[in-house]
Design a protein that fits this description.
By secondary structure, the protein is of the alpha+beta class. The protein is 27% helix and 31% strand.
Length: 161
């Protein structure tokens, strides 16, 4: 039995503060021109009503425990790639329970439901997780002084007859 639910994050949600703080702590160093306030505004701007952009938050017992985003752009040097699975984060004490996989699948479903047939991501260290979920390597490169793998997932669009 799952002990969490995944919800769409709204820009006015009280949980936005937590999501922004987690993701800023995890990846803010890659954006030295940003601070927590500007980062929070960026996260809020991604809180769409459906499709691209969207932010999802995993909730357990009324508290946020993880997040993932469907973003139009996540890598400035690869503008041709879009949209992106981005900011997949699970609180350390909540890891190892399938939550990251569930968040990834939720973003994939959102993209698929809105006609997206290919999704991208980049990661420095979680290639094995994404490969287990069917993602494929596209290229290895250095981005913002970090060696990363750009990956993609082909999404089959399900049409109702």
């Amino acid at each position: 039995m799952r002990a969490w639910v995944i919800e769409r994050l709204e820009a006015d949600s009280p949980h936005l503060v937590d999501v922004a703080a987690w993701t800023y702590e995890a990846w803010g160093h890659l954006h030295p021109d940003s601070d927590l306030e500007s980062w929070s505004k960026e996260v809020a701007s991604l809180c769409g009503n459906g499709g691209v952009p969207s932010v999802f938050v995993a909730m357990r017992d009324g508290k946020p425990v993880g997040t993932a985003s469907l973003s139009p752009d996540d890598m400035s040097i690869r503008q041709a790639y879009s949209p992106w699975l981005a900011s997949v984060f699970v609180l350390p004490e909540q890891r190892g329970q399938g939550l990251a996989s569930a968040l990834v699948r939720r973003v994939e479903d959102e993209a698929r439901e809105h006609g997206v047939n290919r999704l991208y991501l980049y990661t420095p260290d979680q290639q094995s997780l994404y490969r287990r979920l069917g993602w494929r390597d596209l290229e290895e490169l250095s981005y913002r002084d970090e060696d990363v793998t750009v990956m993609y997932q082909s999404l089959q669009i399900h049409h109702l007859l």
